[in-house]
Recover the amino acids of this structure.
């Protein structure tokens, strides 16, 4: 797992890159800076492209199940497509394999990739394999989304309610290799409600809600006692900063928020969504109301007291 | 540079993978096994997807110009799209960077990527950056091709003439970092002739012509004195087995072959193409007629004498 500070450095690295590059042509709706790139597709549709690299020692440890690592490699990119409101279609995978036991490792990896591909109906249509001292897997996923269902990070409005799709924190203890991309949940949301912004929680609520706030030009206030904690997580800082939860973070207008809560009340088997706060134009950044009624700033690198 | 034997091991690794994976849906025209995957696109078009990973120590040496490495990372994938008869549109890049000097290295890499992107009119629309002990760059390119212009490895017919787009061998001495993907040449060919099969020469004429022969279910005979050698290359084995030439290898019917030769004769500024042999249904594999009138088998791992 990359430490928090490293993650933030990476963010600024990508942003620096984007300035060097050729400006995008008119078919590009969203370039670098959201969960996936968006380009024009067939009439009424956009195409989505996302890529995620997993490196041994950073995203998984040497000795962890190769089958689970393969599953995770594809699942991370499917989660990005879900966060745009779309459906994944195709995947291509590049694998850098250490020479020792290359065939055994590759077989396990691809078994995990195949199980994820079947589960989410993704066609693996290409790949490249190479020698590498440490295991590296890079996964590229192509998706599609109806124009009306596309959700960006930047669409939140003042007063919108903030939701997450599940309890947070402690993913490093194992869930980060076995999580379920919230594809079904995201498709349910975009097909039934007007989701104003969405992101998948890869770097933790602290960083990712700051991303939504910043992209939308707003602030966010969240309530400590409303933030669902994963089993075994006792401290709020783990729910905010552990990362790799891969739950959805999204915003709805107050009207749609009430509609969602009514749907959940009516149907006890409904997917669980947790309302944790609301967007505001009164300040920038993310603030949390603690259990003790204090307000703290939730930065990308932890709490700051006022 | 990967040695020849390693390359061949990689080929069989990809093929093993493809059997484990979920069978592709009906929108997939070509899955793993050609220069790029082909799926249905807008009416009259196919979409092309390709991925190539470059690893420090395998595809470039530590200390080589990062700007040239960046250029190569994108150029290799553009070459794959060209070999399908298509045009590249979008690229996404994953980069694994050593912690030391990460920003300096990234800046140079992306300068090289940007210069290649501008030259071939490709929009870089996404990426992922990570920490990695050794530098890894993985490049995905999305392309498009008119249905009538799609060229696979498998379409060669008995009697077809075999061509290459430039002199071969010695790429490791520097050209492998500065080569020009033969996009213009490939588009000229598919727009003016019926190209029956095509591949880009990434692993050398020896391996890649065997790939075309095998995919087309035919044999090939080439003539030693017709094979153009790059400047500084004196031995035929370097022209056949060095790899990373990134020239086009393609086949034309006898009629189209004569048309191409006439076009070249008429126009002295025309692109140079070299006729090196022909396809046959008399045997499998690749055989070469030497300068001395002997016939040798050109395997994936060198010559075999009869």
């Amino acid at each position: 797992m990359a430490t928090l500070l490293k993650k933030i450095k990476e963010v600024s690295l990508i942003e620096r890159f984007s300035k060097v590059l050729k400006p995008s042509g008119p078919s590009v709706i969203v370039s670098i800076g959201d969960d996936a790139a968006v380009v024009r597709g067939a009439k009424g549709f956009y195409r989505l492209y996302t890529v995620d690299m997993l490196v041994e020692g950073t995203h998984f440890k040497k000795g962890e199940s190769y089958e689970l690592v393969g599953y995770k490699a594809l699942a991370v990119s499917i989660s990005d497509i879900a966060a745009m409101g779309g459906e994944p279609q195709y995947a291509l995978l590049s694998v850098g394999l250490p020479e020792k036991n290359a065939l055994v490792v590759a077989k396990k990896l691809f078994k995990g990739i195949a199980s994820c591909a079947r589960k989410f109906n993704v066609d693996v249509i290409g790949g490249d394999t190479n020698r590498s001292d440490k295991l590296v897997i890079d996964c590229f996923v192509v998706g599609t989304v109806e124009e009306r269902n596309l959700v960006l990070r930047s669409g939140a409005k003042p007063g919108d309610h903030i939701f997450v799709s599940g309890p947070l924190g402690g993913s490093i203890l194992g869930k980060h290799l076995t999580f379920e991309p919230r594809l079904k949940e995201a498709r349910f949301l975009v097909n039934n409600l007007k989701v104003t912004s969405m992101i998948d929680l890869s770097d933790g609520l602290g960083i990712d809600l700051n991303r939504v706030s910043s992209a939308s030009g707003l602030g966010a206030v969240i309530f400590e006692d409303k933030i669902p904690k994963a089993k075994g997580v006792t401290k709020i800082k783990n729910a905010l900063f552990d990362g790799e939860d891969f739950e959805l973070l999204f915003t709805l207008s107050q009207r749609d928020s009430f509609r969602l809560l009514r749907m959940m009340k009516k149907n006890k088997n409904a997917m669980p969504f947790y309302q944790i706060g609301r967007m505001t134009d009164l300040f920038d950044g993310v603030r949390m109301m603690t259990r003790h009624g204090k307000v703290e700033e939730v930065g990308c690198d932890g709490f700051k007291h006022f």
